[in-house]
């Protein structure tokens, strides 16, 4: 019995296999295969009720992931074999080039996915998923990160959100500070009020050994999304406009008004560059706080003191990083996630697994264990273990648009190379125009 018949027979609502008559209205999609109309096919056997997956996460995350698969495996009869590889980006290319690709790969960065999709090694999702239904339930804009030449080659199975401002809840509430801000300008006015009261508003740390500077790239990405908007952001990421386009320079200048002002940032430039990103928010939990706010991803709570982590809902508050007045009118969110891609377009079992993994029914057990966010706005938020996580998920669900971290999409020599190093030079005094021009000059020509 095929996977389609097995799943239909047991009525798995989460798995919706789309037949040849399915309505797939992806722009530029439809039909078979990928960029060249070729069906992606690996060397794994088809229809053997076994699906192999390669991903980057292991340990407790792997255990939680596998717990989220147990009921599906029992009901479908499909055995899912997951392999963790911390060097996924390199390993997946080696396996594909040697003819040993898994059935499914989880890409932590879309750049590698798009590279392999351009080689017809990955199946376009509109050939086996209900694209429109998927797009309706996901946080808006998520699928754009896996689009190439009008086709989408992957769908997210988890997400991370970076557009969150964290603060020490008890001290914040005692001071009577606002719980939300309508605009970035309003947030900056509040920051100046803190300065006038003898306080330091912002906690910030960029030190990350060889990766020092990535926190700064996130800040610039946040500002480009808000000041210039997602359309310009997309053009910037894909190099349809130069890195030193005036819109990017303007966004960096606006961030510079904050980052380069020692009154606004704890420790000033020297403190930012010498403080590990994992320790940046710790002074906010001093009594009294040495700084009050940190813009950082949802993972940051894992670096907080044990007593704070043990009671997040009472110790930590958060609000969405607000829009920029005069810029993009909506509320965008910046983030990332693991994108599932299919290497075996002929295997119905692998297709069925993809449909489950990319649905809003996947991940309840992982969510309950903590540390996981569904990319679906329709995911049952009661599965999250605390109100802090539910609030972050709500921030994502209410976003006007999601965009993937730009440095993870840009060529590696830029995204994890000159973009990092030039942000450090910029913070040390280099002008926005000079920094962005240096990055533009480093962009690979092929």
UniProtKB/TrEMBL annotation:
It comes from the Bacteria. PROSITE patterns: PROKAR_LIPOPROTEIN. Keywords: Transport. Gene3D superfamilies: Periplasmic binding protein-like II. InterPro entries: Bact_solute-bd_prot1. SUPFAM superfamilies: Periplasmic binding protein-like II. Belongs to the bacterial solute-binding protein 1 family. PANTHER family: ARABINOSE-BINDING PROTEIN-RELATED, OSMOPROTECTIVE COMPOUNDS-BINDING PROTEIN GGTB. This is ABC transporter substrate-binding protein. It comes from Nocardioides bigeumensis.
């Amino acid at each position: 019995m095929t996977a389609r018949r097995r799943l239909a027979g047991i009525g798995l609502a989460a798995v919706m296999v789309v037949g040849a008559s399915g309505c797939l209205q992806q722009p530029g999609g439809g039909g078979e295969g990928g960029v060249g109309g070729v069906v992606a096919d690996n060397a794994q056997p088809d229809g053997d009720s076994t699906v192999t997956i390669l991903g980057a996460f292991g340990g407790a995350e792997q255990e939680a992931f596998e717990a989220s698969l147990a009921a599906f495996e029992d009901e479908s009869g499909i055995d899912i074999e997951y392999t963790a590889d911390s060097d996924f980006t390199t390993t997946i290319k080696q396996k594909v080039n040697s003819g040993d690709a898994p059935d499914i790969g989880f890409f932590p960065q879309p750049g590698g996915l798009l590279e392999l999709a351009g080689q017809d090694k990955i199946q376009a999702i509109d050939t086996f998923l209900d694209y429109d239904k998927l797009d309706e339930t996901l946080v808006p804009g998520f699928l754009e990160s896996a689009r190439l030449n009008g086709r989408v080659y992957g769908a997210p199975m988890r997400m991370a959100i970076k557009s969150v401002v964290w603060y020490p809840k008890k001290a914040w509430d005692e001071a009577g500070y606002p719980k939300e801000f309508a605009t970035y300008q309003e947030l900056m006015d509040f920051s100046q009020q803190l300065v006038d009261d003898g306080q330091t508003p912002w906690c910030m740390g960029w030190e990350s050994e060889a990766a020092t500077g990535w926190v700064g790239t996130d800040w610039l990405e946040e500002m480009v999304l808000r000041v210039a908007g997602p359309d310009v952001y997309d053009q910037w990421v894909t190099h349809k406009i130069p890195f030193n386009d005036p819109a990017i320079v303007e966004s960096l200048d606006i961030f510079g008004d904050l980052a380069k002002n020692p009154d606004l940032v704890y420790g000033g430039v020297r403190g930012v560059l010498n403080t590990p990103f994992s320790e940046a928010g710790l002074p906010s939990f001093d009594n009294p706080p040495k700084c009050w706010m940190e813009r950082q991803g949802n993972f940051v709570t894992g670096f907080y003191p044990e007593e704070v982590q043990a009671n997040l809902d009472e110790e930590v508050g958060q609000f969405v990083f607000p829009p920029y007045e005069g810029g993009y009118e909506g509320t965008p969110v910046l983030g990332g996630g693991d994108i599932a891609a299919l290497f075996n377009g002929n295997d119905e079992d692998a297709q069925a697994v993809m449909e489950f993994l990319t649905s809003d029914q996947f991940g309840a057990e992982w969510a309950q264990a903590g540390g996981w966010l569904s990319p679906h706005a329709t995911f049952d938020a009661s599965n999250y273990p605390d109100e802090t996580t539910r609030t972050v998920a709500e921030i994502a669900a209410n976003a006007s648009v999601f965009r993937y971290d730009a440095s993870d999409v840009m060529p590696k020599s830029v995204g994890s190379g000159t973009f990092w190093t030039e942000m450090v030079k910029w913070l040390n005094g280099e002008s926005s125009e000079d920094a962005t021009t240096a990055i533009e000059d480093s962009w690979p020509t092929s």
